Amino acid sequence: MENEIILLRGLFRGCHHWGDFPNLIQKAFPEHTITCVDIPGNGYLSSKISPNTIEGMVESVRLQRKSNCKVYILAVSMGGMIGLKWAELYPNEVASLICINTTAKEFSPFYERLLPNNYLKILMALTSDSFKREKVIYEMVSNQPINLNTVNKWASYSKLHPMKISNFWRQLYAANTFRISCPECDLHFIASEHDQLVSYDATIAIPKAWKIPVITNKTDGHDIALDNPTWLLSTIKKVWIK
Fold it and tell me: What is the pTM of this model?
């Protein structure tokens, strides 16, 4: 492996939402730098304007690298779109990419890429205070009983780095217009069979079209790092430690 692993989050999520997972992956890969990055409009970049294209997000993410060598990318949801586009546009910069519950427009209809029972919940989250918003999001991305301690941490972080609703719509537009061709890097897909946010069929559509085996998680929600970090770390080690 090269010496930098990039962690990429998805729509309206920031580095803080990885929880303790960066520390877990650092212990598993002690010789490598673990870099969590935020796209403009999210996390510590919440005051910035989000690009309205995935390509624009790629350019911001590339600038946050700590080295010039090829990177390994672990990416969730829209983060996977950014990783795929990065690998497509700059094939000499990406050694390997693991996409978790990532979809794309040309492979799946919109009602599979975002399940209809979440539409009202998202609108509710956008118009709620930080605690209620993070609680609603937790319930959409997790299959575990709600952890109020985690929700409170997310809400506190949200107050420190408030996210603009306009940036949510810009990010959603970018995700909905995202198109991709298969990059040349080492590529892996993880899909949650019981994802309540995104259809499993949509998540496996890209690797199915590209004839890439899917690693299926049979119990957890959209955010596997939240629900089952032990399983996710074990899976990553099987993929990246040859």
Answer: 0.95
Nearest-angstrom CA–CA distance, 36 and 66: 11
Compute φ and ψ for 65, nearest 5 degrees. -65, 155
**Which of helix, strand or coil describes residue 219?**
coil
Q: What residue type is assigned to position 103 of the chain?
A: T
Write out the two tokens for 131. 């605690």
Token pair recorded at residue 62: 């590339």
3-state secondary structure of 72: strand
User: What's the pLDDT tens digit per position in 173-203?
Assistant: 999 999 999 999 999 999 999 999 999 999 9
Rounded Cα gap, residues 44 and 163, in angstroms: 10
CA distance 34 to 22: 7
DSSP notation for 74-133:
EEETHHHHHHHHHHHH-TTTEEEEEEES---TTTS-HHHHS-GGGHHHHHHHHTS-HHHH
Are the CB atoms for 154 and 17 separated by under 8 Å? yes
